[in-house]
Write a structure and sequence with these properties.
five-stranded mixed sheet, about 10% strand
């Protein structure tokens, strides 16, 4: 059998092929373009690569056009963690020498000796992978929006506390269109105090507000015209210009998050697993899409529910040595799935009586809030694995029989 290792780089790649005995059969230096990909496929075909029996490939990334080309058909592509590859390198040489062709040879030998210890990339459908792209991009856009909003809030505290007071009653605060429109109309507190009732109402209308315009305009006008401390005029104007620059970034981040959310809402319901995911309490379209993006739709990816729980970081890990033993939470995990799981568990407290009772029972047993949330997520993601494997919808009385009886 032949094994292939590819040392991936930005513009060129090094390829190495080894046989069962570990001997180097072929090596090649290819470019990162269509010609290089064609040369790679021809090299694999020369050494016995067929559609029914493709040569497995090890590479240090799971993304990019090269990986997309390799994943066509039944080929198994193994994304080896660079840290793991570095440890394997020490098995072949203790001098700590390193080269790109040598790394390709190390990757090929990883498959030759330990292919059973590594997972190939899951065979997700094209729709599932498209949803993963959109859900992750939407999550990144939300994180970026919140980061810029925090910077803007910190800046407003330095010279414009009246704005923070005026927007405090609105959900999402500075990310609201009304808040952004008012800040554009009055970038400094001095200009805000001179805004008339008509100008405030016009700004709220431009932001898309339909109801309570007169009441909100009067409330904001009273806040702006109250007595506040001020920076010197020149400093205040300079801070106002800095605020407008941040406001442009915030508007772009809000627009990107909204557009990506619409794209997710359009694509996710088309997936065959959408109905099962949405049947779980606490999961809406956006959060369910994030869960699907991380676990994929290849139902053979995880051998059992324990593997999925470990991947999500919800199950504890035991460290034992001699007479010492400790049980702690996992640090190596899928951070995106773990973050989505925390939101899922928190939202399910109101949507499910059984989930709320399970959380309360864990708190009574001494768990902190985060530990109880993690325990609830661990249980619910195990139930999700069962439902996906057996194509069943979530059922409250089946999922939490004991907790429901205790709650009653």
């Amino acid at each position: 059998m032949i094994y292939c290792g590819i040392d991936w780089a930005e513009r060129t790649h090094d390829v190495a092929l080894v046989n069962d005995a570990g001997a180097l059969v072929a090596k090649r230096h290819i470019t990162d373009d269509a010609a290089g990909y064609k040369l790679l496929l021809e090299l694999l075909a020369e050494h016995g690569d067929t559609e029914e029996n493709p040569i497995p490939v090890a590479i240090e990334t799971s993304r990019g056009l090269l990986v997309a080309v390799l994943r066509t058909g039944k080929r198994k592509v193994f994304a080896i963690n660079p840290l793991a590859a570095a440890r394997y390198r020490d098995r072949h040489s203790v001098s700590r020498k390193k080269s790109d062709p040598g790394d390709a040879l190390v990757l090929a030998n990883i498959l030759r000796t330990d292919m059973h210890a590594h997972r190939p990339l899951p065979g997700d459908s094209d729709l599932g992978r498209a949803i993963a792209v959109l859900a992750r991009a939407q999550q990144d856009a939300l994180w970026n929006r919140q980061q810029i909003a925090n910077q803007l809030r910190s800046l407003l505290r330095e010279y414009y506390p009246a704005a923070l007071e005026a927007f405090a009653t609105w959900t999402n605060g500075l990310c609201r269109p009304e808040a952004r429109e008012l800040l554009k109309a009055a970038p400094t507190p001095s200009r805000a105090a001179r805004l008339t009732r008509t100008q405030l109402q016009a700004a709220l209308k431009r932001a898309g507000r339909k109801r309570g315009i007169e009441v909100e305009a009067d409330r904001v006008r009273e806040v702006f015209r109250a007595e506040w401390a001020h920076q010197p005029p020149l400093v205040e104007n300079a801070l106002g210009k800095q605020m407008l620059a941040l406001l442009i970034q915030l508007e772009a981040a809000c627009t990107a998050a909204d557009q990506l959310a619409e794209a997710v809402e359009e694509a996710f319901p088309q997936h065959s697993d959408a109905e099962i995911l949405l049947s779980f309490p606490g999961l809406g379209v956006q959060l369910a899409a994030r869960i699907l993006a991380e676990i994929g739709d290849d139902h053979s990816r995880f051998a059992d529910a324990r593997g999925l729980k470990a991947y999500a970081g919800s199950s504890p890990i035991t460290r034992a040595s001699g007479k010492k033993s400790s049980i702690t939470r996992r640090w190596v995990k899928n951070d995106r799935l773990n973050h989505a799981g925390y939101l899922w568990a928190f939202a399910s407290l109101r949507a499910s009586v059984g989930a709320n009772a399970h959380y309360r029972r864990r708190r009574e047993h001494g768990d902190w809030h985060a530990a109880a949330q993690r325990n609830l997520f661990n249980r619910m993601i195990g139930q999700l694995y069962h439902c996906l494997q057996h194509r069943q919808l979530f059922h409250e009385h089946t999922a939490f029989p004991t907790e429901l009886a205790a709650a009653a």
